[in-house]
Amino acid sequence: MLTEALLPLFRRAPTTSRILNISSQLGLLNKLKDPSLRRMLLDEAALTERDIEAMVSRFLAEVRDGTWRGRGWPEVWTDYAVSKLALNAYSRLLAARLAGERVSVNCFCPGFTRTDMTRGIGKRTAEEAGLVAAGLALLPPRDMPTGKFFRWRTPQLYSKL
């Protein structure tokens, strides 16, 4: 909702605006075992925000009624992974919607970073992750892709998620 509210400002910027969502490899499609959900998320021509919301609503309903296990959801940090699946899909959708409007939309996985959420364990410091995010966000407009997932500094194709 915040991103949607800010879009008019992004569109008025004199240069390319950047939306860089902090995501995770846990939200890659290879973590999702349900073939129907994978097909839905891979079908970029048909995917809608409503589809993404329906996926999240289905997950929440299955958690509430205790049936989510064995239904093809990611197996590690499941709730976090589903939120990142939704973020990645929305970012892809938004990038396609804004194509040609000088607004770049990408996702970035900082890797396993030492934060409160990871109880202080991880391979990187928050400062290191922040520096990489800043570097990606500040790429010159001619070098700024859109609709990509970056693992650390390397762009990964969504089709391989």
Automatic annotation (TrEMBL):
A Pfam family assignment: adh_short_C2
Keyword Lyase appears in the UniProt entry: no
Keywords for the protein's UniProt record, in alphabetical order: NADP, Oxidoreductase
One Gene Ontology CC term in the entry: membrane
GO molecular function: oxidoreductase activity
PANTHER family listed in its UniProt record: (+)-NEOMENTHOL DEHYDROGENASE (PTHR43490), OS02G0607700 PROTEIN (PTHR43490:SF37)
UniProt similarity note: Belongs to the short-chain dehydrogenases/reductases (SDR) family.
Name of the protein in question: Uncharacterized protein
